[in-house]
Specification:
Radius of gyration: 18 Å
Shape: globular
Order of helices and strands: EEEHEHEHEHEHHEHEHEHHHH
Number of strands: 10
Number of helices: 12
CATH architecture: Alpha-Beta Barrel
Length: 291
């Protein structure tokens, strides 16, 4: 269902307003490059600083622009179960193909609380749901046993975006989950080792600017051509690294702005890159012939 490359889209702003024209152009670029899916209003889409009306509009426009040509996996997670249910139901009404649910952040629920949180969302929608474990942002991870409980209890929880930075977690998950439950890398630099351990694709930040190339890496790995996948990985690794030289999505938005695709705007409390890091990113983009 989610095999392949899915781009965690930025939300472009112009004069602090959602730039719909730029967003549609970004989606066209993704589809023309052979992407499997797009993920609006995730972490890369600055969901914490969008109000509910903006959140709904970004998903609605993503669905309209994709027009069935790729999957739309809407970011609808929250650290409030009621809010996550509301956002997920609205995404379903808008025509999204699936929803991505981040592990609740800041309030640090127990594993039992996580189970009840995700089960409540699953019970409120018919959408396929992708769990999103990212302890670096949430402070906790979705435990392997909890993922197994959710897979057993909720037929529409069918995948996980794994962003804990540990390839061993992929092996642990594969040991206990049914073969049909899919694992996606949440880190471009770890897509290759994650896929070697059993992941079937990636939710990618880098594919905002190199969608075709990330697709090439994933397709090679899916075909068992790890020599080819490694060659792609090694070539683009400097970009994978430097897109996280500061907090995502500041570097990827800076890169897109340097390409002239969007305005160089993020919303507070995020701000522009410090000059040294901006110059390092610019040098990497230039060396890779991206600007």
């Amino acid at each position: 269902m989610f095999e392949g490359t899915h781009t965690a889209l930025v939300t472009p702003f112009r004069n602090d307003r959602f730039d719909e024209a730029a967003f549609q152009q970004l989606i066209e670029f993704q589809i023309e490059s052979g992407i499997s899916g797009i993920v609006p209003v995730g972490t890369t889409g600055e969901s914490p600083t969008l109000d509910h009306q903006e959140h709904h509009r970004v998903i609605e426009l993503a669905v309209q622009a994709a027009a069935g040509r790729c999957k739309v996996i809407a970011g609808t997670g929250s650290n409030s179960t009621v809010e996550a249910i509301s956002l997920t139901v609205e995404a379903e009404k808008a025509g999204a193909d699936a929803a991505l649910l981040i592990c609740p952040y800041y309030n640090k629920p127990s594993q039992e609380g996580l189970f009840r949180h995700f089960k409540a969302i699953a019970n409120a929608t018919k959408l396929p749901l992708v769990l999103y474990s990212i302890p670096g942002r949430s402070g906790i991870e979705i435990g392997v046993a909890t993922v197994r409980r959710l897979a057993d209890a909720c037929p529409n929880i069918v995948a996980i975006k794994e962003a804990g930075g540990n390839a061993d977690r992929v092996s642990q998950l594969r040991q206990v989950l049914p073969a049909t439950f899919e694992i996606l890398s949440g880190d471009d630099a770890l897509t290759l080792p994650f896929m070697a351990a059993g992941a079937v694709g990636v939710v990618s930040v880098a594919s905002n600017i190199i969608p075709r190339e990330v697709c090439d890496l994933v397709r090679a790995a899916l075909a068992g051509n790890y020599t080819g996948a490694r060659a792609v990985h090694e070539h683009w690794y400097p970009l994978f690294r430097d897109l996280f030289i500061e907090t995502n999505p500041v570097p990827i938005k800076t890169a897109l702005a340097l390409q002239g695709r969007i305005a160089p705007e993020v919303r507070l409390p995020l701000c522009e890159m410090i000059e040294d890091n901006a110059q390092k990113l610019k040098a990497t983009l230039s060396a890779l012939h991206l600007i």
